[in-house]
Specification:
five-stranded mixed β-sheet; 15 strands; 5 domains; Arc Repressor Mutant, subunit A; Tex N-terminal region-like; alpha/beta
Length: about 725
């Protein structure tokens, strides 16, 4: 069994054998989506999020082991490794504990203590540390006088410097103080310049316990301090804390040497310990807040990517703008560009009627049914314009405002240039906006996840950790939905388990050179896609209409024989897959017995249940079962809002203190966490997710600050 299995199992509340199996599969180079979907028997059906949590913890513990070995080797080289210290190093459960133990042995820069040691004052410090009440401190110190130590007072000062550093480096003391600061510390902030207004004004005179401060406030304080508006500190009662240090090191019966120890302990606390603990506590708060923000960002991204697609409709994308005009793109139901244009719908350019004529012509010529409007500059004017056009056409067309976050990044990218070499940068963004409405997942995978606009303080997050988390979310979403092998773009294919960016390009090149794939087995002929990669990716790639119906399902090729055996045993054939005739298969399997079929086919029950589900509904897209997006045909302005009005809206972003909801006035309203539910909730994600269609009531409208306060309390929600 893996050395970390028991610990991870205990921490995550899992059976050790499942954890051990997951670790073995990860170490063997299997991807998280593959393990989650096709190795359920081994891991007891752990989902992708649980597996990633396990993998993160495994990486931490292995990193801790590596650091433990480095620390042990360093101390051993110094000849200072004792059996007691070795046992303490082995027992250290966190990097902080390990570094506390290493602190006395860690090479230091020049300090007051190192200078005192160089002057030969370590023996005097040791004598004071013993706190023998019979010791004549002055007489003892006089024996250390020399050219560098002019008198007994200088000798005692140097000895106290040595003792202060020893006290500061004590692992047990630091552990106690860490608990003390976390329990009783206060995070305080005040204005660097009280006369200077800023978005951080609420923190100009702020205090909150370390134990209770919310993550988003920690991140706000950090940013305000970096930008020079705030001064932030972690404060504790200095006298009480210094007394705690003294109690650990000063003997009441120590006489004059105890007085020296008391002075050294108080100096250690004020000069060395408090600044160090303050930095450590703040770093821990920031790390915790960042991790929380990253998890919220990841969950928001997951919900955004899994928004229901609007299939089978011709879409128009409008990328609003002033000077450069509104860019227009019409795409067919598959996302192919049919037409483009640039219009000026903003009244100040006096070309509104011309713009209406062009848009109406495009709608009629191509049978446009839905319009996607970017929410950027001039978005409100463009939305009003679109609503007017729809009214003048007599209806038949609906629109939705979509986030255009990342559209400009994508349109200027090398990928967009390869995809649309014939269009300029501005028109590419209009195409992207239209496609976001048709299939959010397929379009948004082309964009850096950090640019999709559903996080908080994302620019302050540790880049490596943020990228790992968001990339994992994108990978999980793509593999959960599955990918059409013959229509997917290279960026979408590159997110499939086991497929690299290079291999994805090779798949597209093979498709363009030799025509559409007709079977999954043909993937084995793609350059760079070996047996291991095929094993990881095959089940997530779909081939609707393939000769073998199983190629259109999520059944893995390794289970084709089992699927055929199930069909035969239950009186069906491959030709029945996905037809109404096979609807009774689940009941037939229940009658035959899952256990008997598992023994006959050689697969476990979770895999067998997945096979049966896929045979009945091949290539099922779980997004189709979600409520459809909220489409509109008319628009309101903020000035039309009145307290008490009830409206339908779409959740655009979920953050620690609430959720922003698009209610069709171009300015998202905020539902504070306290207004999200009748019941107490710790986090807004317990009540809503990005993309949810919710009913809200207006509480307050501040036209000057462009703020809308909303509530979901005592409002009947749509089913």
């Amino acid at each position: 069994m893996n050395e970390h299995t028991q610990q991870i199992a205990a921490e995550l509340g899992l059976e050790p054998r499942w954890v051990d199996a997951a670790i073995e599969l990860i170490d063997a180079g299997n991807t998280i989506p593959f393990i989650a979907r096709y190795r359920k028997e081994a891991t007891h059906s752990m989902d992708d999020q649980a597996l990633r949590q396990l993998a993160d913890r495994l990486e931490y513990l292995r990193g801790l082991d590596k650091r433990r070995s480095e620390v042990r080797a360093s101390i051993e080289t110094q000849g200072a490794l004792t059996a007691e210290l070795d046992a303490a190093l082995a027992k250290a459960a966190t990097l902080a504990e390990l570094e506390d133990l290493y602190r006395p042995y860690k090479p230091k820069r020049k300090t007051r203590a190192s200078v005192a040691k160089a002057r030969g004052l370590q023996p005097l410090a040791d004598a004071l540390l013993a706190q023998d009440p019979r010791l004549d401190v002055e007489k003892e110190a006089a024996g250390y006088c020399n050219e560098e130590v002019p008198d007994a007072a200088a000798a005692l000062a140097g000895a106290r410097d040595i003792l202060a550093e020893q006290i500061s480096d004590d692992a047990h003391l630091r552990a106690e103080l860490r608990r003390f600061y976390n329990a009783f510390g206060q995070v305080n902030s005040h204005a660097a310049d009280p006369d200077k207004d800023s978005v951080y004004a609420q923190y100009y005179d702020f205090s909150e316990p370390v134990s209770r401060i919310a993550g988003h406030r920690v991140l706000a304080l950090d940013r305000g301090e970096r930008e020079g508006f705030l001064k932030v500190e972690v404060a504790v009662d200095p006298d009480r804390t210094a007394d705690l240090v003294c109690r650990m090191f000063v003997k009441k019966s120590g006489g004059a040497s105890a007085a020296q120890m008391d002075a050294a302990a108080r100096d250690a606390y004020t000069r060395l310990i408090h600044p160090s603990m303050e930095r450590e506590v703040r770093a821990a708060l920031t790390d915790k807040a960042a991790e929380g923000a990253i998890q919220v960002f990841g969950e928001n991204l997951r919900q955004l990517l899994l928004q229901p697609p609007i299939r089978g409709k011709v879409a128009m994308g409008l990328d609003p703008g002033y000077r450069m005009g509104c860019k227009v793109a019409v795409v067919d139901p598959t996302g192919k560009v049919l037409d483009t244009a640039v219009v000026y719908p903003v009244p100040e350019f006096k070309r509104v009627e011309q713009a209406k004529t062009i848009i109406k012509q495009l709608i009629r010529r191509h049978g446009v049914e839905i319009i996607a409007i970017g929410n950027g500059t001039a978005g409100k004017e463009t939305e009003l314009f679109a609503a007017d056009v729809i009214r003048e056409l007599g209806g038949g067309v609906q629109y939705m405002v979509v986030s255009e976050a990342g559209a400009s990044v994508y349109s200027a990218s090398k990928l967009a240039a390869e995809e649309f070499p014939q269009y300029d940068v501005n028109l590419r963004s209009a195409v992207s906006i239209a496609r976001r409405l048709q299939d959010p997942l397929a379009e948004l995978v082309k964009i850096d996840p950090k640019a999709v606009g559903v996080g908080q303080y994302q620019h302050d997050m540790p880049a490596k950790r943020l990228n790992e988390t968001l990339d994992g979310v994108v990978e999980d979403c793509v593999n959960t939905v599955g990918v059409d092998l013959n229509t997917a773009s290279a960026p979408l294919l590159a997110r499939v388990a086991g497929i690299t960016a290079t291999t994805a390009k090779n798949i597209v090149a093979r498709r363009e050179e030799e025509g559409a794939f007709t079977s999954r087995a043909q993937l084995k002929k793609v350059k760079g896609l070996g047996p291991k990669a095929f094993e990881q990716c095959a089940g997530f790639l779909r081939l609707p209409g393939a000769a073998d119906p199983l190629d259109a399902t999520a059944v893995h090729p390794e289970s084709y024989a089992a699927a055929s055996a199930v069909l035969k045993k239950c009186g069906f054939s491959l030709a029945d897959v996905g037809t109404p005739a096979i609807a009774s298969l689940p009941k037939t399997v229940e009658a035959v017995g899952y256990k008997a079929l598992c023994e006959e086919t050689g697969v476990g029950e979770p895999t067998l249940r997945d096979i049966v589900s896929e045979l009945v509904r091949p290539g099922r897209d779980m997004r189709d079962e979600l409520p459809p997006p909220l489409l509109r045909s008319d628009v309101m302005g903020m000035e039309d809002l009145k307290p008490g009005m009830e409206l339908l809206g779409t959740v655009r972003n979920v953050i620690d203190f609430g959720a922003f909801v698009d209610i069709g006035v171009h300015q998202d309203g905020l539902v504070h966490v306290s207004q999200l539910s009748e019941k107490f909730i710790k986090h807004p994600s317990q009540a809503v997710h990005v993309g949810d269609v919710v009913r809200v009531r207006v509480l307050d409208v501040d036209l000057k600050k462009k703020r809308i306060a909303l509530t979901m309390k005592q409002v009947k929600q749509p089913q």
